[in-house]
Inverse folding.
């Protein structure tokens, strides 16, 4: 029994132990809230009819140079013909208004020219670095027929 224990301890001496060498944290999660507005035919002011909007995002850093980000946003847009300064004969007697839902999704690839990072595990990393990015996105607007008020 002592011989078996000796061999086990002898073999364990050659197994590397890396308690502080865990995998570096690569995932970033975030959320945001803000105001969103529609600027067009039925809203001529940027600050009128502002609606709440929320965003959730996740970013994965492959290494200190490259990362991939995914985001999804949800908000509402609204406008009405009584707020406009332009004269539209069709809406002069019957005002028109809308309140629609907007969903936006996007994926972005980022490339940093210098290694980016803020922790000790990023040897030689910079907190500020030039970068380029590109991505794809799509926006879905749930359109409800406008309400004509008499």
């Amino acid at each position: 029994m002592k011989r078996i224990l000796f061999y086990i301890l002898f073999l364990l001496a050659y197994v590397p132990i890396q308690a502080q060498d865990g995998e570096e944290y690569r995932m970033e999660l975030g959320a945001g809230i803000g105001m969103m507005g529609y600027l067009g035919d039925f809203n001529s002011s940027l600050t009128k009819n502002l609606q709440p909007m929320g965003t959730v995002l996740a970013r994965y850093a492959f290494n200190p140079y490259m990362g991939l980000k995914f985001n999804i946003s949800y908000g509402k847009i609204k406008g009405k013909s009584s707020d406009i300064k332009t004269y539209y004969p069709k809406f002069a007697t019957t005002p028109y208004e809308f309140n629609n839902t907007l969903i936006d999704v996007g994926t972005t690839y980022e490339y940093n020219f210098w290694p980016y990072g803020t922790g000790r595990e990023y040897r030689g990393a910079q907190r500020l670095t030039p970068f380029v990015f590109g991505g794809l996105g799509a926006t879905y607007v749930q359109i409800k027929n406008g309400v004509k008020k008499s």
Summary: The chain has one domain: 24-148. The beta strands are 27-36, 51-61, 66-80, 96-112, 131-142, 147-148. The radius of gyration is 28 Å.
